[in-house]
Write a structure and sequence with these properties.
The chain has helices at 2-40, 46-61, 64-82, 92-118, 121-129, 134-164, 176-187, 190-222. It is mainly alpha-helical and 223 residues long. It has one domain (2-222): Orthogonal Bundle (MetI-like fold), CATH 1.10.3720.
Length: 223
């Protein structure tokens, strides 16, 4: 195990950095998708609610590995061959970020919907009675209160997304699991390599869980 750390430690650490970068990209765009779809799901407009429901159920109903293959191989084939437009290529980072953003975004939409619905409806009614338009009432009154309840769930979703990056080794992205496979192939030291990888994941996730608890406690005191 010491030999693996000495020889491949920097490579594994760099792969962990790429894993975190991919998870951050995915979570950033997932927050945008989740915010839009989550708000759509609480609107009175039937089309918006139907679109949000279809998106969430469709993405959550497809295994992430299938989604990754579809985006990496299927979308360029559809664009270049079937539609005949041509010129579209997706790198493993781009396809992985899109895959994580869509998958995480579907769950984020449910977190945001639940957060908005947890705010007393009287808050929105009071803001509207003061003459504030709907979107300003949502932005200035409802969302700030909802975010307090969302933050722990959002951080928990980031942890899940971080672990889900391991699935993207199937499309060749050089994240931690993919890199560990190469180390195992070079050293034939499977147990030691995967023990090190497991410890790396565990350390990062424990730090994130600790940060989530600290943030939740500060938000509770701030409330």
């Amino acid at each position: 195990m010491t030999r693996i750390v000495a020889t491949y430690g920097q490579i594994l650490a760099a792969a962990m950095g790429k894993t975190l970068l991919l998870a951050l990209y995915g979570l950033f765009f997932a927050c945008i998708i989740g915010m839009v779809v989550g708000i759509m799901s609480v609107l009175k407009n039937r089309f918006c609610r139907a679109f949000a429901a279809v998106f969430v159920n469709l993405i959550r109903g497809v295994p992430m590995i299938v989604l990754a293959y579809f985006i990496f191989f299927g979308v360029p084939y559809l664009w270049n061959t079937i539609l005949g437009i041509g010129g579209l290529t997706l790198s493993a980072l781009q396809a992985g970020s899109i895959c994580l953003a869509l998958n995480c975004g579907a769950y984020m939409a449910e977190i945001i919907r639940a957060g908005i619905e947890s705010v007393d409806i009287g808050q929105m009614e009071a803001a509207r009675s003061l003459g504030m338009p709907y979107w300003r009432s949502m932005y200035r009154v409802v969302l700030p209160q909802a975010i307090r309840t969302m933050i722990p769930s959002i951080i928990n979703q980031f942890i899940i997304t971080l672990k889900d990056t391991s699935i993207l080794s199937v499309i060749g992205f050089p994240e931690l699991v993919n890199t560990a496979k190469n180390v195992v192939a070079a050293t034939f030291m499977s147990f030691q390599t995967w023990a090190i990888v497991g410890a790396m994941y565990l350390i990062v996730i424990l730090l994130l869980q600790r940060a989530a608890k600290v943030l939740e406690r500060r938000l509770r005191y701030g409330a």
